[in-house]
Design a protein that fits this description.
The chain is an alpha/beta fold. About 45% of the residues lie in helices and about 20% in strands. It is built from six helices and nine strands. It has helices at about 15-25, 40-50, 65-80, 100-130, 150-170, 205-215; strands spanning about 5-10, 30-35, 55-60, 85, 135-140, 175-185, 185, 205, 225. It is globular, with a radius of gyration of 17 Å. It binds 5-hydroxy-NICOTINAMIDE-ADENINE-DINUCLEOTIDE PHOSPHATE. 5-hydroxy-NICOTINAMIDE-ADENINE-DINUCLEOTIDE PHOSPHATE (NJP) binds near residues 36, 61 and 89.
């Protein structure tokens, strides 16, 4: 029986999620990678397999609860367990409220808030059963810092913050841990077709991945981590 631990990473087709996948593959993790873009997902999976990891691609749209349920079922059927859930996927719609649509706000809440709640709900029972597990959530400094043009993004990140801090309270007497990471700006594709131009005030996705690994290596400590370059 393969005893290598399993990580489930949402939003693993690029950016921070892909960087986490590559690092965890090097650390000996088996991986379930979720995103919509199958070609991008397979390209990340191919890179993780260079580290000889067992990697399952889960093509799913986090705006669709049925996709999420199918992805979790496929993952548990394949691996039998998930040790670490990384709620990373996120979208951002920015701008004055008059320029934003209700559909954008709803998508923002669905992907960032509802999907990470549902993934946690579906994967927690098997963690409780084994009395072992870790949830790592990629939030944002925008979860504590409102800014002009951030009405929908900040709403989603404040909501995730409240949700996962509540979950920390709910699980405080359990062996399952919840840790929240609050990055500042990161050099990724976020909201773009191409990666943003590297800027010295931005973190690299690989630095966020290292923070994730440090938390895994310390079994969920710290429960809250803020990382950024200067703004
Ligand atoms: O973004 P990006 P990041 N269903 O755009 C996936 C937070 N953060 O890595 O579906 C399923 O490169 C998408 O895949 P695809 C941020 O809020 C960032 O920067 O194939 N998957 C891709 O893999 C977010 O929570 C910054 O398009 C969906 C991934 O999500 C996290 O970091 C600063 C999906 C997004 O990759 C990762 O963002 C900060 C859907 N409906 C916090 N929609 C920053 N970059 O500056 C998207 O404080 N995905």
């Amino acid at each position: 029986m393969n005893r290598a631990p399993v990580a489930f990473i949402s939003g693993a087709s690029r950016g921070i999620g892909a960087a986490i996948a590559l690092l965890l593959a090097q650390k000996g993790y088996r991986l379930a990678l979720l995103a919509r873009n199958e070609a991008d997902l397979r390209s990340v999976a191919a890179q993780t397999r260079l580290a000889a990891t067992d990697c399952l691609c889960l093509v799913a749209d986090l705006q669709r609860p049925a996709d999420i349920e199918t992805a979790v079922s496929r993952c548990l059927a394949h691996f039998g367990r998930v040790d670490v859930l990384i709620n990373n996927a996120g979208i951002g719609h920015f701008g004055p409220i008059e320029k934003l649509s209700l559909e954008q706000f709803q998508a923002q809440l669905q992907v960032n808030v509802v999907a990470s709640w549902l993934l946690s709900k579906l994967l927690l029972p098997q963690m409780h059963q084994r009395d072992h597990g870790l949830l790592i959530n990629i939030l944002s400094d925008a979860a504590r810092r409102p800014f002009a043009g951030g009405s929908t993004y900040c709403a989603s990140k404040f909501a995730q913050d409240g949700m996962f801090r509540s979950l920390q309270e709910e699980l405080k007497n359990s062996s399952v841990k919840v840790s929240n990471i609050y990055p500042g700006l990161v050099n990724t594709y976020f909201n773009n077709k191409t990666p943003s131009a590297p800027q010295p005030n931005k973190l690299e996705a690989a630095e966020v991945a290292v923070a994730v690994w440090d938390i895994i290596a310390r079994n969920g400590e710290p429960s809250e981590l803020h990382i950024s370059r200067s703004h």
